[in-house]
Write a structure and sequence with these properties.
- This protein is of the alpha+beta class.
- The protein is globular.
- α5 runs parallel beside α7.
- It contains 8 helices and 10 strands.
- Mean pLDDT is 79; it is low at 1-14 and 66-118.
- The protein has helices spanning 2-8, 32-39, 53-63, 87-92, 199-217, 229-244, 262-274, 290-320, and strands at 17-22, 27-29, 46-50, 138-139, 145-146, 152-160, 174-180, 183-188, 221-226, 277-282.
- The N and C termini lie far apart (55 Å).
C-alpha cells in the first residue's frame, strides 16, 4: 500500500511546481520561465510555487476556474540527477533495459524532518518585487490600509508567547491585529492549557480575528501580512493534504498525532473559500516595518493580559474550594 502511494505521488518532495490559477493559460508548470510567461502582463495574476504536484493542482482548482489541471502539467523529463521516472515511464512502467537502476522510492517517504523551518514551502514575501511596503500603502477615509490596486486591504497580524519554549512552567500568549489607524486589536488567549498557549496559536488566532473582521466589513480581498511561515504554509499548502487524508473529520500529522490548530484553520479556510479572497504575505519580524511592529506590540500586550486573567481565574477558583 505504501509503495503504491509513493509511486502515485512520485514527484512529491523532489522539484518545484508552479501553479498559475489566474493567468494567460492557467495550469501547473515545471519551470519558472513558463510560469512567468503566463503571468507577466496579466492583470490580477494569481500564482504560487509548490513542492508537490498535488498541492499545485489543488491551488489552481481552488483559485482558478475550478477545472482539473492534472493534464496541464508540461510533459517533461526530469533531470537524471533527481532519479525520477519520465512521463512515458510513469504511464508504461519503468524501462526494462539491462543495467537500469531501480528508483529509490524511500526518498519520497514523509519524515518528521518535513516540518522543519528550512522545509517551509516558498510563498510570497516582503522580498518580492511586487511587495508594497507600509509607507507606500494608501489610507482610506476611515483609516484602513489599501494597496495600489484600490481593492486589496492590508492587515498585519502577530502572535506572542513569552517563554514559548518553556515545556514545564505555565505559558501565556496573545494575538495582535493591526489594520492601520482604523482598528487595532489586542486579543488574549481564551484558554489556559499549555498546549494551546504557544506562539503558533497566537499567530493563528490573530489571522482568524483578521479574516472574521474582513468578512464583517464586507471586504472582498485582503492581504494578511505575518511573520509566521508556519501559518502561511499550513493555510496555503499543508491544509490541502490534511483535508484530503482526514479520517472521521480529524486532521493528523505524519505520525498520526492530531493537528491541534484544526478548529482555527478550518474557520479561516471557510471564510477564505466562501467570503474573502485572502492572500498571505510573509514579512520579516522586528525588521522596522511599522505595521509588523504595531501588531507585535498588540500581541505582547495581549499575552500580558492573558497572564492577568489566569491569576484572576485562580483566585476565583480558590474561593470556590
Amino acid at each position: 500500500m505504501l509503495n503504491r502511494f509513493i509511486r502515485r505521488n512520485i514527484f512529491t518532495y523532489t522539484m518545484p511546481f508552479y501553479a498559475v490559477a489566474k493567468g494567460k493559460n492557467p495550469g501547473v508548470y515545471l519551470t519558472w520561465a513558463e510560469c512567468q510567461a503566463n503571468v507577466n502582463g496579466f492583470s490580477g495574476a494569481k500564482f504560487k510555487k509548490f513542492p508537490d504536484r498535488l498541492a499545485a493542482s489543488d491551488f489552481v482548482k481552488k483559485f482558478g476556474s475550478g477545472t482539473s489541471t492534472e493534464d496541464s502539467v508540461k510533459e517533461e523529463r526530469v533531470d537524471k540527477e533527481n532519479d525520477i521516472l519520465s512521463t512515458s515511464q510513469r504511464k508504461n512502467g519503468p524501462s526494462k533495459r539491462k543495467g537500469d537502476a531501480k528508483p529509490n522510492f524511500n526518498q519520497f517517504k514523509k519524515s518528521k524532518n518535513d516540518d522543519k523551518k528550512s522545509d517551509y514551502p516558498e510563498g510570497k514575501s516582503d522580498k518580492d518585487a511586487d511587495y508594497e511596503p507600509y509607507n507606500t500603502l494608501k489610507e482610506t477615509e476611515d483609516g484602513y490600509l489599501l494597496k495600489k490596486d484600490g481593492e486589496t486591504y492590508v492587515v498585519y497580524t502577530d502572535g506572542a508567547c513569552p517563554g514559548n519554549q518553556n515545556k514545564k512552567g505555565l505559558r501565556f500568549s496573545g494575538s495582535g491585529v493591526w489594520w492601520g489607524p482604523a482598528k487595532a486589536d489586542s486579543i488574549p488567549n481564551d484558554r489556559f492549557e499549555n498546549e494551546y498557549s504557544t506562539n503558533n496559536f497566537g499567530e493563528a488566532r490573530a489571522i482568524l480575528a483578521a479574516v472574521k473582521h474582513a468578512k464583517e466589513k464586507g471586504f472582498k480581498k485582503i492581504e494578511v501580512r505575518t511573520d509566521s511561515k508556519f501559518c502561511i504554509s499550513a493555510l496555503d499548502v499543508w491544509i490541502i493534504k490534511w483535508k484530503r487524508f482526514a479520517k472521521d473529520g480529524k486532521w493528523t500529522k505524519y505520525d498520526k498525532s492530531p493537528i491541534i490548530h484544526q478548529e482555527i484553520f478550518q474557520k479561516i479556510d471557510d471564510i477564505r473559500r466562501n467570503f474573502v479572497d485572502i492572500e498571505f504575505r510573509h514579512v520579516k519580524g522586528h525588521n522596522g516595518e511599522l505595521g509588523n511592529e504595531k501588531a507585535d506590540k498588540l500581541a505582547v500586550k495581549a499575552a500580558e493580559e492573558h497572564k492577568k486573567l489566569y491569576k484572576i481565574y485562580m483566585e476565583e477558583f480558590s474561593k470556590d474550594m
